[in-house]
Amino acid sequence: MGKTESALHATPAATTGSKAEYWMPFTANRDFKADPKMVVRAEGMYYWSESGQRIIDASSGLFCVNAGHARPEIADAVHRQLQELDFVPPFMRGHPKSFALAERVAQLTPGDLKRIFFVNSGSEAVDSAMKIALAYHQARGQSGRTMFVSRERAYHGVNFGGVALSGIVNNRRKFGPTLHVAHMRHTHIKENYFARGQGEHGADLADDLTRFVNLYGAENIAACFVEPIAGSTGCLVPPRGYLARLREICDTHGMLLVFDEVITGFGRTGAPFGAQSLGVTPDIMTMAKAITNAAQPMGAVAISERIHDTVMGAAQDGAIEFFHGYTYSGHPAACAAGLATLDIYRNEGLFERAHELAPYFQQAMFSLRGAPRNRRTVSRASS
After folding, report:
1. The Cα angle at residue 118 between residues 295 and 134, in degrees rounded to 5
2. Please, which residues bridge with residue 300 across strands?
3. Digit-coded pLDDT (tens) for 49-68
4. From 199's CA, which of 25, 30, 192, 302 has a CA 20 to 30 Å away?
């Protein structure tokens, strides 16, 4: 056996001690590698460091571990699936669990958002939703609708479509203008800083969408993307009436309303999705993160039956109706994790539990008003 072949068959060490090879995402790599903060185990609501220190996971990973870490029900489901069917090409082939999971997700989505397209992340979900919007308008003979509207301070992932939609400057400045997107003003206004729930001021900010209709022409705008409740830029709850006004403007001018529910989905607002908590139903909805309790990478797009049927109806029989997808769309292991996760949410009543606990945590949060703060720490965190 030659040297190269021996190296291929050698058992690698658990850790080499080198930190140079891995380029970490959204991280000050030099700072981290000078003082690594390594996590080696997780269970329930805790992480454990290399030194054995127990650390509370106060943000549920990246807002994705809604049912707690290391759930054996999910691990066992993934293990069984990998032994039974580890992969099947999602193009022109299928497997039962992808259809089962789509049905289960559709039972949770509002209105007629009953057609589910699987992806692998929130970023992919957003880009897929953009393509679906374009395909819908093309199918109805309005191919000129290629522009999108989003908001300042928005976060819609890190693929090029999502970067174009995003209104967080550091996510955009290195990558140029990308797609044609107009940004409405954000809803973080002083009058609502200490509002409990939805503030009473700022619903008129939705009229920025009308201003763009007048400026660019509705016939050129495909969709308006918003997070029902912004998360990555701070927890920004929309003013009362704001989302309903966006819904009205979109309906009036034939534009689609898209909710990015990657963070707000699966119980975080005390309902399956933020759309239900806030009483406004979009045309398209993106989701990811908690769909598998973060045990497997997965995302999805929920599409209204009207949009789905329009795209389907425009294609000839036997033709591919929507030229889009990923190698790992509806991956068997991810679907198994998703089904096990939805069972946990249902069997343990976690959405209802979140609804019951919300007033308690809201009161605890508002009790901190007026408490002293370290302004230097706050300034550094917001820079």
Report:
1. 140
2. 118, 287
3. 999 999 999 999 999 999 99
4. 302
β-strand 115-119 against 256-260: which pairing, if any?
unpaired
Q: Tokens for 145? A: 């609708």
CA angle 186, 288, 209 (to 5 degrees): 25
The phi and psi torsions of 136 (rounded to 5 degrees) equal -65, -50
Closest CA to 326 of 189, 171, 74, 131: 131
**CATH number at 73-347:** 3.40.640.10
Distances in Å between the Cα of 254 and the Cα atoms of 134, 204, 205 are: 13, 20, 20
Report whether pLDDT(181) > 60: yes
pLDDT range class, residue 4, cuts 50, 70, 90: very low
Residues 32 and 314: their CA atoms lie apart, in Å, by: 52
Angle (nearest 5°) at CA 237 between 108 and 213: 90
The answer for residues whose C-beta is within 8 angstroms of residue 137's C-beta and 6 or more apart is: 143, 144, 145, 222
pTM over 0.85: yes
Q: DSSP string of 25-70?
A: TTS-HHHHHHS---EEEEEBTEEEETT--EEE-TTHHHHT-TT-B-
> Which of helix, strand or coil describes residue 120?
coil
Distance CA 95, CA 335 (A): 10
